[in-house]
């Protein structure tokens, strides 16, 4: 897969940090077992020698990702994540018409390795997310997700517990969106197999606020990538 030039991904840069708008299908770090494939860390190190990725996004998730350019920056960001001082906001498109109004989901998550994550009240680690519905469609809802903790797959599994799986998230029973399901009279060319509008789950890290080494707020707004923007545009047009 061809990825854009690293420079073109940059939303913010100073002496200590780079924030990029991570494209989908690009891993944040080396995967276990080191397949040697391109990832954010490798691209960042080509751009800035001492670069370290400060947190991770799932491979399919797009959006704002903080990279430190030096050890001081990395320590500074890590402490903020540890103390839950980083303000993170994601957007997701979910199945169905769901009404969330500052809904706090507080369900512990157990990560038993192998990318397998479950809700486990006895053994799980505390996990909290706040959900707000932003926009209603006939068959879908655009949801704002604010994770307070940072567990693996947290937003995805918390939404699934509310019967509001993210579209395209097969791991949590989310179904892909096809144009034929929202556009009246849509006809496929004979012999053609319809592709989903988005070939991944619809989750994007939209906003981020953290403090630089000078203690000033760094406020990031990451525009939707092409596939997410296309999904929203088509829902606006055919499912509103």
TrEMBL record:
The stretch of residues making up the signal peptide is none
Indicate the family of this protein.
Belongs to the pseudouridine synthase RluA family.
Upper taxonomic lineage: Bacteria, Pseudomonadati, Bacteroidota, Sphingobacteriia, Sphingobacteriales
What's a single GO MF annotation on this record? RNA binding
Q: Residue limits of the Pseudouridine synthase RsuA/RluA-like domain? A: 16-160
Q: Which SUPFAM superfamilies match?
A: Pseudouridine synthase
Its GO biological process annotations read:
enzyme-directed rRNA pseudouridine synthesis
Name of the protein: RNA pseudouridine synthase
Q: Its domain of life?
A: Bacteria
């Amino acid at each position: 897969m061809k990825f854009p030039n690293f420079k073109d991904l940059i939303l913010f840069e100073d002496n200590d940090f780079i924030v990029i708008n991570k494209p989908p299908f690009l891993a944040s770090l080396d995967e276990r077992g080191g397949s040697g494939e391109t990832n954010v860390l490798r691209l960042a190190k080509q751009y800035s020698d001492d670069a370290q990725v400060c947190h991770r996004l799932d491979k399919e998730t797009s959006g704002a990702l903080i990279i430190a350019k030096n050890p001081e920056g990395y320590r500074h960001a890590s402490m903020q994540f540890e103390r839950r001082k980083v303000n993170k906001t994601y957007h997701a498109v979910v199945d169905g018409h769901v009404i969330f109004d500052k809904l706090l989901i507080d369900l512990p998550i157990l990560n038993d390795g192998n990318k397998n994550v479950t809700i486990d009240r006895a053994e799980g680690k505390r996990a909290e997310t706040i959900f707000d519905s932003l926009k209603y469609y006939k068959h879908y809802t655009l949801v704002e997700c604010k994770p307070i903790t940072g567990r693996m797959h947290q937003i995805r599994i918390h939404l699934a517990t509310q019967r509001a799986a993210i579209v395209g998230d097969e791991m949590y029973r989310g179904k892909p969106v096809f144009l034929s399901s929202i556009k009246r009279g849509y006809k496929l060319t004979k012999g053609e197999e319809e592709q989903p509008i988005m070939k991944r789950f619809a989750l994007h890290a939209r906003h981020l606020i953290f403090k630089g080494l000078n203690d000033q707020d760094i406020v990031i707004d990451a525009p939707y990538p092409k596939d997410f923007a296309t999904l929203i545009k088509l829902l606006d047009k055919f499912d509103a």
